[in-house]
Amino acid sequence: MSLAVAVCYYAAARLGLMGRLVVEGAVVTPIWPPTGVAVAALLLLGARVWPGIALGSFLVIASLTTPGPTTVVTVVSNTVAPLCAFLLLRRAGFRRDMARLRDGLSLVFLGGFGAMLISATAGVGLQVAKGSLERGEFWPVWLAWWVGDTMGVLLVAPLLLVLAGPAGRFRVRRWKEAAFLGLTTLVLMPMAVLSPMSMLFLVFPLLIWAALRFQLAGSMLCALFASVLTTIQATSGQGAFLHLTDVEIMAKLQAFNGSAALTALLLGSVITEQRATRRSVRRACQELAEVLEHLAAGEPKPGPPGTTESRAAPPGGHRDP
Questions:
Q1: Which of 91, 157, 284, 313 could covalently link to 36 via disulfide, CB atoms 3.0 to 4.6 Å apart?
Q2: 23 phi and psi, to 5 degrees?
Q3: CA distance 110 to 84
Q4: How far is CA 265 from CA 93, 156, 157, 187, 227, in A?
Q5: d(CA 261, CA 254)
Q6: Distance between CA atoms of 37 and 78, rounded to whole angstroms?
Q7: Which residues fall within 8 angstroms of residue 155, CB to CB, at 6 or more apart?
């Protein structure tokens, strides 16, 4: 199992490295998918798969540069950050189906914003200690690193968790609407991203539509597609990112990715929770209607198996003392 996690971690890293940006002379990734893969693997399979995360992180580093003594620090930080996210989420009572708003908020603030401070601080601090970065360059690079790791958690982890559960299976009668939504997304999103008029706001109605009709599975797929497409355009300096400096590109891209991820995740969680509450109320109403039917017919309320219920007196009759 750990070996499979390592393979998925490495594959996600290679995909993430395709969209690299330069901030203050340092290469960063606006979205780092391995953090989302690691957090999702820990939540689905348990803490026993942490060696797979460590192995995957080592393989990524080895594919980029010659491993050295500092590699140990990087591997440890890349492993400890998802582990801390997993422990914090478990302590907060996080549910993998993410059927409550509190689950979405926990993933954002504990799994994303909180735990990823570890990997960003250790990674950038190590580069400053090695002399690869100046002290004055610490905060811009740290912010870009932290946002990239956080975006990996917010965009990739919830999608994997939802698709791994029953909530990720659409009903057959909804496939027509899903296909229409997908076709609309394929048309409007490239138009919003490729246009030099900065029309990225066109993405958000699609995110809202996906969340309202398909909950987290639809909204997170839509948000991930939008973020990946926008990141590709940002790295090439085209479309909405034309004539911008490297720092401006990174700031605009991070703002968009963060807004899209939070909108999809939190709105999807709210809709999922509301639908679950509505189903619970409907079941309670059906049970109450059955009880009222029994009472109206003069029958006793059904009791638990193995219990003896007193019989109701016939209409107009009385019990002997």
A1: 157
A2: -125, 115
A3: 9
A4: 18, 11, 11, 23, 13
A5: 10
A6: 12
A7: 31, 33, 36, 220, 223, 224, 227, 257, 261
Q: Is 300 left (phi over 0), alpha (psi -120 to 50) or beta?
A: beta
CB-count exposure of residue 123 (10 Å: 0-12, 13-18, 19+): buried
In this structure, the dihedral spanned by the alpha carbons of residues 68, 69, 72 and 78, taken in order and rounded to 10 degrees, is -70
* Whether the Cβ atoms of residue 300 and residue 309 lie closer than 8 Å to each other: yes
**C-beta of residue 44 within 8 angstroms of C-beta of residue 167:** no
Structural contact between residues 28 and 246, judged by C-beta atoms closer than 8 angstroms: no
- CA nearest 30: which of 20, 15, 38? 20
d(CA 244, CA 23): 13
CA distance 9 to 6: 5
pLDDT tens string 165-216: 765 555 555 778 888 888 988 888 888 888 777 788 889 999 999 999 888 8
pLDDT in tens, 69-127: 888 989 999 999 999 999 999 999 999 888 889 999 999 999 999 999 999 999 889 88
Task: Single out the residue of 82, 73, 52 nearest to residue 128, CA to CA.
Answer: 73
Q: State the pTM of this model.
A: 0.83
C-alpha–C-alpha distance, residues 229 and 218, integer Å: 17
3-class DSSP assignment, residue 26? strand
Q: Using CA atoms, how far apart are residues 115 and 321, in angstroms rounded to an integer?
A: 71
